[in-house]
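Example 3.2
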Amino acid sequence: MLEGLSNKELSRLQELTILFMHDKVFEGAHGLAISQHMALIISLQACLPVLNLGMDGYDGWTSVIVYPAGFAPERSITDENGVVHRVQTDLSGESWQRGPVVLSWNEVETAGVIDGHNLVVHEFAHKLDMQNGVANGFPPLHKGMHIKDWIKAFTDGFEHFQHECRTGKSPDIDCYGATSPAEFLAVLSEVFFERPDVLNRNYPAIYEQLRQYYRQDTLMRLR
């Protein structure tokens, strides 16, 4: 995922990683001891999306909680009749608005495999999405980007992707992205940084929007 970065970019990534490790608190859950090496692996991946954006997108929270493996928090859900149910959902990561990022280490430690899946990028894409409120697939855009272009690219792409997933034709992209616009953005961010060729081949308009948003041309870099 770091292949193709120039010496200048690698130096900037190192600086951001040091800042991230200084600003954030890494906490192990279920007895997991967080080593410096583990914190470094997480931090490098977390800082790649903000390589040309800076750390402002990660302001307002401090904790990165790491579980040894997947976790299943119990939560209350109220149905349409007002009945409260206690449910447990298996997760490998989650991000809270103004709260922690939660990761499972068994997913993070295999991130060196370039397969279009990256849990850290996924959860930190949610954090960037949350800068203007709840995660909804519409983060604050930069000057020079056009809202109508973002909305058209992602709306058309999301509808097409949902159809492809329903019919079993997903183009090498995790169909978890079809569950909501927020997950669509997070999943496609994973693909943007790991398999930009797949993203550009299937959704070139979205690739272009993410290229402008992250201010990185991963397709050119990873060639």
